[in-house]
Amino acid sequence: MLNAALFSLAIASLLLAIPEAQAESPAKTAPPSYVTGEIADAAHVGGGRLTVMVWDVYDAALFAPGGVYSEEKPFALRLSYLRKLEGRKIADKSSEEIRRQGFGDEIKLAIWHRQMRSIFPDVQKGTSLTGIRRKDGSVAFYHNGKMAGVIDDPDFAPRFFAIWLAAGTSAPALRSALTGRR
Predict the structure, then answer these.
(1) Residue 22 contacts residue 49 (beta carbons within 8 Å)
(2) In what side-by-side order are the strands of the sheet with 75-81?
(3) Contacts of 3 (CB under 8 A, 6+ apart)
(4) Each residue's pLDDT tens digit, 157-167
(5) Parallel/antiparallel/unpaired status of strands 55-65 and 42-52
(6) Are 77 and 165 a contacting pair, CB within 8 Å?
(7) Residue 52 bridge partners (DSSP)
């Protein structure tokens, strides 16, 4: 019982700690078929690994048309998890990060949080979650290549993807590795 409590405390610390991205990008990879089915001419833009303290959390890869990222056009962000995490905690941390970046509409954030909690599964090493910003501004989520859900609110996409891709991200080295921007 004590080991489980210590492990839970370590995971909570992991989720709340300041992240650090490794500069080494995983090798360029071809986009998965579910990404090319949503985004014409999708190609790898960049990638990196999120490490918090000493724990590797996930490898991230960004795909966009022609391999050129623009927040105004469709793109996909795939997170390939390297450890076990609860989907509920992923949704909680996503909401915290959206709030940290200055989003103050708590009613809308609560709606999004509820939607994310219903979409995000528990993950383990080898699980992938992919968010795809579609042309209409909605976000489609895929779990290991299978559709997991859609959030149709076009205000959600820029706020959600800002967690990784905006200048105010808590992981600027990862942003740089994904987008090539400083």
Answers:
(1) yes
(2) 19-22, 42-52, 55-65, 75-81, 128-133, 139-143, 146-151
(3) none
(4) 999 999 999 99
(5) antiparallel
(6) yes
(7) 19, 55
Instruction: Say if CB 79 and CB 59 are below 8 A apart.
Output: yes
How many residues are recorded in the chain? Answer: 182
Q: 169 has which bridge partners?
A: none
Residue 54, classified by CB atoms within 10 Å of its CB into exposed (0-12), middle (13-18) or buried (19+), is exposed
Write the DSSP assignment of the chain as a string of letters: -HHHHHHHHHHHHHHHSPEEEESPPPPP-PPPHHHHHHSTTEEEEEEEEEEETTEEEEEEEEEEETT---TTS-EEEEEEESS-B-HHHHHHHHHHHHHHTT---HHHHHHHHHHHHHHPPPB-TT-EEEEEE-TTS-EEEEETTEEEEEE--TTHHHHHHHHHHSTT-S-HHHHHHHHS--
Question: Which is higher by pLDDT, 30 or 119?
Answer: 119
Structure tokens that stand for 44 in this block: 């790898």
Give the chain's domains with CATH numbers. 2-179 (3.50.70.10)
- Both tokens of 182, joined, read 């400083």
Are 82 and 58 within 8 A, CB to CB?
A: yes
pTM: 0.86
Residues 43, 36: Cα–Cα separation, whole Å: 8
